[in-house]
Amino acid sequence: MNTIKIIVGLGNIGTKFIGSRHNIGSDYINYLANYFKIKLKKIEKLRSYIGFINLYNKKIILLIPNSFVNNSGKSILLTSYFYKITLNNILIIHDELDFIPGKIKFKYGGGSGGHNGLNDIIKTFNNKLFYRLRIGIGHPIHKSKINNFVLNKPTIIEKKIIYFAMKNIINAIKIFINTNSFCKAMNYLHSK
């Protein structure tokens, strides 16, 4: 049975991207680090910012790739090799255009759904079998505006909805890690 050993948050590196829709994954890792009162450290050889939490006697790595979203795979691959962790023990947290702001869902496997970060991870590992936690950010009316939309910050109302929903993620992750049951974590989260 798979358990989570690395939690990755996708986002573009650089202060100007903090709080943008596309950085919701990496912002959430920072949120988790604050919640568990730990600091993330930059580890050059792994091209990542990494911290460790202990939960239910299990050591979990929190990871933010030190790269742009489109090049996330290399950092995750280096870290997984270094700590001898397989892809199916990794949870990727990312923004989801196809969900309204605040809608949050787990998923295992499948394609990238057009998400460049997921696409890079799938290509780098040559494998689609990993856990994802998708956080809804909404969708612009016109497809041509997607790039600007994801690089901009959510509205104040959207931000409140998203961050309120994010609190449920901590409980879902705790359930997953404690029980090793993806189904229990998914049922909890999807009932919210």
Architecture overview:
It contains 6 helices and 7 strands. The chain has 192 residues and is of the alpha/beta class. It has one domain (6-190): Peptidyl-tRNA hydrolase (Rossmann fold, 3-Layer(aba) Sandwich). Helix 2 packs across helix 3 (116-125). It starts with 5 loop residues before the first strand and ends with a helix.
Strand arrangement in the largest pleated sheet = 2-3-4-1-5-7-6
Q: Quick one: how many beta strands?
A: 7
Percentage of β-strand residues:
15-25%
Number of domains: 1
Sheet bearing the most strands, described?
A: 7 strands, mixed
| Global shape | globular
Radius of gyration using CA atoms only: 15 Å
Distance between the termini: 25 Å
CATH architecture: 3-Layer(aba) Sandwich
Number of helices: 6
Report a brief summary of the structure.
The chain is of the alpha/beta class. The chain is built from 6 helices and 7 strands.
Notable characteristics:
192 residues, alpha/beta, Rossmann fold, seven-stranded mixed sheet, 6 helices
What topology emerges from the helices and strands here?
Layout: E1 6-9, H1 24-35, E2 41-43, E3 48-55, E4 58-65, H2 72-82, E5 90-96, E6 104-108, H3 116-125, E7 131-136, H4 146-151, H5 156-179, H6 182-190
Parallel strand pairs: 1-4, 1-5, 5-7
Antiparallel strand pairs: 2-3, 3-4, 6-7
Helix pairs in contact: 2-3, 5-6
